[in-house]
UniProtKB/TrEMBL annotation:
Organism from which the protein derives: Neobacillus rhizosphaerae
Coiled-coil positions: none
Top-level division of the source organism's lineage: Bacteria
Family assignment from sequence similarity: Belongs to the sulfur carrier protein TusA family.
CDD domains: SirA_YedF_YeeD
Gene3D superfamilies in the record: TusA-like domain (3.30.110.40)
Protein's recorded name: Sulfur carrier protein TusA
Amino acid sequence: MTIDKILDAKGLACPMPIVKTRKAMNELNSGQVLEIHTTDKGAKNDLSAWAKSGGHELIKIDEENDVLKFWIKKG
């Protein structure tokens, strides 16, 4: 998997991870992948729902040392 952009949203509370993700996704072309790092536990549900509603593909979610990592392909 090729990562086209990495977003560091660690330490931000809802809704900021979504706001920053939306802004970062607007800078990508269709088919490109955004990797997001966040410490907001609510982001698991929020980013999943946001990706689906926006027509994007949530490729993977991983958790490492209390940091959630998401990979979303722009639709």
